[in-house]
Amino acid sequence: MAKGYWVSVYPTITDPERLAAYNELAGLAVKAAGGRVLASIGSRVVAHEAGTAERVVLIEFDSFEQAVAAYESAAYQKALAELPDGFERDFRIIEGLD
Fold first, then answer.
1. Which residues form the DUF1330 domain (predicted)?
2. Domain residue spans in the chain?
3. What is the DSSP string of 14-66?
4. What CA–CA distance (Å, rounded) separates 80 from 84?
C-alpha cells in the first residue's frame, strides 16, 4: 500500500505565537493519527524557481487514506482553528508511489 504525505509550504509567518499554538495541537493530532514528521522547522531548504524557503513541513502516514483521515479528524480541525486570520500556506495531501 502506498504511503500518504502531508506537504506544507508557508510563504510567510506573520504571527509566530498563534502558529505555535497550532503547532502544539497539530503535533498531537498527527501523532495520534500515526503520522511521522520527516522535515519541519529548522530543516534546511534550498528553493529554486518560484520555490519558497520560509518553512516546509513533510509528514508521512502509512497510507493515503490515513493521511486524509488525519486531516479530517476532530483533533486536527481543532488545530486548524488556531491558525491566525489571513494565514497563508500551500497544503497538499499526496499519495506516494509505492
1. 3-97
2. 4-95
3. S-HHHHHHHHHHHHHHHHHTT-EEEE-TT------TT---SEEEEEEESSHHH
4. 9
The pTM score is 0.88
* Residue from 16, 32, 40, 37 nearest 78 by CA: 32
Q: Which three cell numbers stand for residue 86?
A: 489571513
Q: Is-contact 4 67, C-beta < 8 A?
A: yes
Residue 20, classified by CB atoms within 10 Å of its CB into exposed (0-12), middle (13-18) or buried (19+), is: exposed
What is the full per-residue pLDDT of the chain (98 aa) written as tens digits? Answer: 899 999 998 887 777 777 888 999 999 999 999 999 999 877 788 888 877 777 889 999 999 999 999 999 999 999 999 887 778 889 999 999 97
CATH topology of domain 4-95: Alpha-Beta Plaits (3.30.70)
> Contact at 8 Å (CB) between 3 and 90?
no
